[in-house]
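ok so I'm stuck.
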Amino acid sequence: MSIEFFEGKNIFHLQNEEISYVIKILKNGQPGHLYWGKKIKNAERLDRYPTSQHRPYEAYAVKNDSGFILENIAREYPSFGQSDFREPAYQIEAENGSIISDLKYKDHQIYSGKKELDGLPGVYLEHDDEAESLEIILYDEVLDLELTLTYTIFRDYPIITRSANFENKGKQNINLKRALSMSVDFEYRDFELLQLSGAWGRERDILRRSLDQGITKIDSKRGGSSHQQNPFAALVEPDTDEYGGEAYGFSLIYSANFIAQAEKNHYGKTRMSMGINPFNFNWLLENDQSFQTPEVVMNYSDQGLNKMSQNFHQLYRSHLVKGRYRDQERPVLINNWEGTYFDFDTDKILEMAEAAAEVDIELFVLDDGWFGKRNDDTSSLGDWYVNEEKLPGGLEYLAQEINNLGMDFGLWFEPEMVSPDSDLYREHPEWAIQVENRESSLSRQQLILDLSRSDVQDYIIERVSAILNKANISYVKWDMNRPMTEYGSLKLKPGRQRELNHRYILGLYRVLEAITSRFPDVLFESCAGGGGRFDPGMLYYMPQTWTSDDTDAVERLKIQYGTSIVYPASSMGAHVSAVPNHQVERSTSLKMRYDVASFGNLGYELDITELNVDQIKAVKNQVKNYKEIRSLVQFGDFYRLRSPFESNFTAWSYLSQDKEEVLVGFYQILASPNPREQKVKLKGLDAGAEYKELSSGEIYGGDELMNYGIKVPYLKGDFSSKVWRFQMI
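replied:
not stuck anymore, here's the structure
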């Protein structure tokens, strides 16, 4: 791992054992992009290829070189105009109304380690020798504006992170109209765009489409990263599949409105950019003020999509997630939500807890309805005081009784929201996001608190802390159940209203930093109506996320498979729920539901007291089994073997780091008469080793399992599954 600067050629070469990334300061003083991909030993020689080429009917940016056409040149952080008509990485507006800028190379710094971003989550290091960073400092002398582009290359991963920081050093005010985190120009590649898209209850479908001349864009304008799109995209070759071909993955560590965009111009060049969504965005930079963009993780694989995913998984498990639970196995939990909804009291909860303790579940989670006058979803959000009519003795008594059963106690919150029918709203109506003299839209009968305000942030920190200090609570599910509408703050000045979404998320990050730091032994799980804010920004503070409100085992095959493109199993909450399923009314076997959920962080979401004797026995065996495999599931390497988006079958596996343990899942959606035989070929094993299948005692060679595969027994009926466990002998 190193970053070299070749002064005579003005070339920077970022490299490790797997990749090279090459930047050149162009003749106009702006940074250009030469290469990103598999490692090149002497990357400075790429300077031999000319950047100038005359083109008809184009403007050129250097007076004495009619071939220096920015529209035809690969750039690192492009502006608009000056002969480049593609979408820029940034756009400013000066006090005179001009949108032209000319940020030129001023200086650079190369150093070991990686700096934290001010107020934003990011990938971190344990030791400085794990990465090296480059800061390229650009300056516009007319605007007196300085821009610092930061690149970090990692020693152990084919990954580079990027961000940008703007600082106004002059006396005039500058409006940032657009401030993306990164932009990369690729030459002459027939890329396809891979994205994770969907809706509530069917999050992160894998979509793939070719790029033609023009702009292909995914984004969120909903206030959070959203169910509809995920802040991730990848550029892939047409022949790239799970285990072959090149893939360039981009993941934004951010939880608010974002954009990911690929633009292919008339010369066949593709510009990929990502960052804060410029729609409805403006940031006023006054004298000596700065603006920091979120961080993008740029991930290269020449071994297909699965290797790209494993790169993300390993980095996020060890250098994004933090705290006690980063390396600790997650508990098996039961949540009362789908079992009772709002209709519960202390006796009912303890009845469920006693039954859960009998099957060795480790954590009981009390969901919505424990506070204020909350008997349905029309009131009390914001009133974080225990409803002792429902829960005599409060949370202290309930937590103690559950602890006495040998289980930990967890609690649901939705701190970012407020109900119009609440004491908090009646006292502070100005604390809600709103536009003066405009009626506010409701979603789930609630409004959003204005977290751009420090007084709102302080209220949430203190009220949540008061509850966590009062009872023995070891887990928090942090929910957020509506999109943002009527973007407006009664506290922000008119010229700063378009800063609201970013200021909101900065406020949320401050809240999360304060609370998670105060309570380092609490396991936090984020949720936003299920998977509406499943993003790296939230994972920085909360090591796992409720993957989707849809708990149907069949739908979860797609949801968990798509989520695995970026996110590790240790981040995915996955529950066995009651049937018929509450989202799609489908009935699946208890075995099928477990066989799907056990490939994430296992939980149960049902009234366990309604199960019969045989079902209770089965659940106890499931919990026992999961405790044996959860280290492998939560921290092993994941392999996608058969896609639910392409056939009637799904298959995946986990392999331990030492290649000694293997867990394989195979799932059939619909049965067919007289079916063809199915076979699964495994990946990543030690070809020279022998593996014992634990249920049958059969011995297989690693090479046999990878090259011939293992035959799937005949599966009877719709929604059926088979799981194998192998141990190296």
